[in-house]
Design goal:
Blueprint (H helix, E strand, L loop, with lengths): L2 E4 L5 H12 L3 E6 L3 H13 L4 E5 L8 H14 L5 E6 L14 H22 L3 E10 L12 H21 L5 E7 L12 H9 L10 H11 L10 E4 L6
Parallel strand pairs: 1-2, 1-4, 2-3, 4-5, 5-6, 6-7
Helix pairs in contact: 1-2, 1-7, 4-5
The chain binds NADP nicotinamide-adenine-dinucleotide phosphate.
Length: 246
């Protein structure tokens, strides 16, 4: 059984990714930050479907917690009879709307820690545990391609994560570990307070398929990219956005 760790797997795209990966036969470790109950629901849904799952707490914005998290991962893997795992999905994140003129240093640092520094050092921490031939998927955003007023630091750090993805592919390739990023367009989750009526209509109008996306339309792509049939896809940023502003 392949094993995937999905950060921010308690809600939204991460939860959907967990369900889709479990459906494909993977064992799943989801992490949560503030919502253990939601993570338990994801684990319950996977187990009810005959799959294997566990939830671990992790604040991706606090690198000081990473060694203890690694130990918790090892304990979980050991319980499943493994010494390593196969796939890491750096998905955890949050949205913040504020124009550049008003962004505070604390807001900037918070976004930096969760969206760029966290994935960098979490991957570094877990790398010895990732099996040769594994894969890392970083969740970025279509806002790296289309400038969207109000999300500058978020988009800049997601852009950094896209670049980092190529460097991961370069440096980890000798172990057969691939690295790709998936850049979702607007998807119906609770990110940044969720979609309200007007906002959703505007985003749908900017999308070729005439609507926003649903979480499972990202989760299924992640699960598919992790499958062996896609093993030659490496160092790519794949936008999954229904044709957003084309
Ligand atoms: N939805 C979209 O339209 C969209 C578009 C482009 C990119 N994305 C990206 O997709 C990823 C998932 O977003 P989503 O839409 O699924 O958002 P969401 O529904 O708000 O879920 C966010 C997830 O991230 C976790 N999280 C938040 N801050 C965290 C932290 N400091 N440490 C660890 N976990 C943390 C949350 O855990 P708890 O609930 O347990 O706190 C939750 O599981 C994010 O990286 C986001 O930037 C989303």
């Amino acid at each position: 059984m392949k094993i995937v760790i999905i950060t921010g797997g308690s809600r939204g795209l991460g939860a959907s990714t967990a369900i889709e990966c479990a459906r494909s036969g993977m064992g799943v470790i989801v992490t949560y930050n503030d919502n253990p109950g939601k993570a338990d629901e994801v684990v319950g849904a996977v187990v009810a479907g005959g799959g294997t799952a566990a939830a671990l707490k992790l604040d991706v914005g606090d690198t000081g917690l990473f060694p203890a998290f690694r130990d918790a991962v090892v304990a979980q893997l050991t319980a499943w009879g493994r010494l390593d795992f196969d796939y890491l999905v750096n998905n955890a994140g949050y949205g913040l709307f504020n124009p550049i003129a008003k962004v505070t240093e604390a807001q900037f640092d918070g976004l930096l820690n969760v969206h760029l520094k966290g994935p960098f050092f979490l991957t570094q921490t877990l790398l010895p545990l990732i099996a040769d031939g594994g894969q890392i998927i970083n969740i970025t955003s279509a806002t790296t391609r289309v400038a969207t007023a109000g999300v500058a630091p978020y988009a800049a750090f997601k852009g950094g994560l896209e670049v980092l993805t190529r460097y991961m592919a370069k440096e980890f390739g000798e172990r057969g570990i691939r690295a790709n990023s998936i850049a979702p367009g607007a998807i119906r989750t609770e990110l940044g307070g969720g979609l309200n009526g007007e906002f959703e209509v505007m985003l749908a109008g900017q999308t070729a398929l005439g609507r926003v996306g649903e979480p499972e339309e990202i989760g299924s792509v992640v699960a598919s990219l992790l499958s062996t049939g896609n093993r030659w896809i490496n160092a790519q940023n794949i936008e999954v956005a229904g044709g957003y502003i084309i």
